[in-house]
Fold:
Amino acid sequence: MFTQPNFIIVGTQKGGTTSLYNYLIQHPQIVPSSQKEIHFFDFQYQKGIDWYEAQFASKNSEEFLTGEASPYYIFHPLVPQRIKQHYPQIKLVVLLRNPVDRAISHYYHEIRCQIETLSLEETFAAESTRLIGETEKIISNPDYYSFNHQRYTYLSRGIYIEQLQNWLKYFPIEQFLILESENLYKDPESTVNQTFEFLGLPQYQLSQYCKYNAGNYPAVNEQIYEYLADYFEPHNQRLAAYLGREFTWTLTNNRVTDNVERSL
Structure:
């Protein structure tokens, strides 16, 4: 007997999705999937919906929920319509991190994975060239996998307004819980209980809120940070206007100054 997921954390990469998912599955009424990132709707869609639902353990009653977290979902152009086709009522959780910090963290993640070879400055300058035609190829050929689209989208993934607009073509805003990653880092208990409430579950306090999937990286040159802050500012303002809410990083170009933030 296959089980349908009740929720999906769809992104963003380097935004705390691993931590949030691991907090959520400690709730006594949440059953974890076979793994945190199933990547069905982006990389494994050809395996079929039965394969996907087999990744979720059978639930004994409707009081139990299950779900997954694949942070590439929010950015992949075909995922929203695929999820809509199969689960039109599903609840969707989004974590949005200051796109400046997210881009830098993403870069050092690819460095640790020994995938990126360019310097930080070269990477941002090369992104538009690396991505020429890649989105169009994904849309025109559902079986096409774009390494560049997955790996080299440091700036593009931080333009949240365009990604959310794509999702909101298929789902009403009421099916989304849009969280600020910085709030998860600073006050995980409140953010997690906000998520439980969104899922229709009673509050639950964990014994501890460890950070998952964190990696240290060095302080960044001030000029690079200024460049990124200027680059994202108009997109951040469009996002704030579109959602009718402000994020801490849409109010001012805050800079990362402590090691806690640089470790995520």
